[in-house]
Specification:
Layout (H helix, E strand, L loop, with lengths): L1 H22 L4 H38 L4 E6 L11 E8 L2 E10 L21 E4 L2 E9 L2 E9 L2 E12 L2 E9 L5 E4 L4
Antiparallel strand pairs: 1-2, 2-5, 3-4, 3-6, 6-7, 7-8, 8-9
Length: 191
């Protein structure tokens, strides 16, 4: 709020001071008070405009690149009840993510492009221009197994581990995601 007052009120105050000095020039006794006021208000206005522009630039960059938003794959829990597979993957956006591409490989390939298994599940595909917040059906399906999915987008790179397995006679899934900083996020996929 203070930045807006400085940014918009400063030019108004400078106009009023300038108008007053033009109509009724101050005598020598008060001349330096007006000079100091012009300098002080002018500097505060410039400072406010620079800070406000910096905030706008930061918000715009986050909006254009996706900031810390990310996406991940999961199966719809109701699809797991048939127990047979393969299971349709849903791409879930946490926030809006732009210019997204991904690569799915078996976990056994350890994200090593020289391992023949690395290229066994996926192929080059067009990027997804935007993944909006929430789940989106994809055309990809996967059977039981452990997978690594690598993502690249305007805001960076991250990867996830997707696991389909049988426990207590039911198909289960787990999703673990490592963000750009290498921090692990366990995603609740029970819903």
């Amino acid at each position: 709020m203070m930045l807006q007052i400085l940014t918009f009120g400063g030019p108004f105050l400078l106009t009023v001071l300038g108008g007053y000095v033009a109509v009724s020039p101050p005598n020598k006794k008060y001349k330096w008070w007006f000079v100091a006021a012009f300098i002080l208000v002018g500097a505060a206005t410039v400072y406010g405009q620079i800070r406000m522009q910096s905030e706008v630039d930061s918000k715009l960059e986050t909006m254009l690149t996706g900031g810390a938003d990310y996406a991940y794959f999961r199966a719809d829990p109701s699809d797991l009840s048939n127990g047979k597979g393969p299971y349709q993957l849903w791409l879930v956006g946490i926030g809006n993510v732009y210019a997204v591409n991904y690569w799915i490989s078996p976990e056994s390939a350890h994200m090593n492009g020289n391992d023949p298994a690395y290229g066994s599940l996926d192929a080059i595909k067009p990027r997804i221009d935007i993944v909006n917040s929430g789940p989106h059906a994809s055309t990809r399906t996967l059977p039981l197994g452990d997978y690594i999915i690598q993502f690249a987008a305007k805001n960076g790179e991250w990867h996830q581990k997707l696991r389909f397995f049988i426990a207590d006679g039911h198909v289960q899934q787990t999703v673990s995601l490592w963000d750009q900083a290498g921090k692990l996020h366990e995603i609740d996929v029970s819903k």
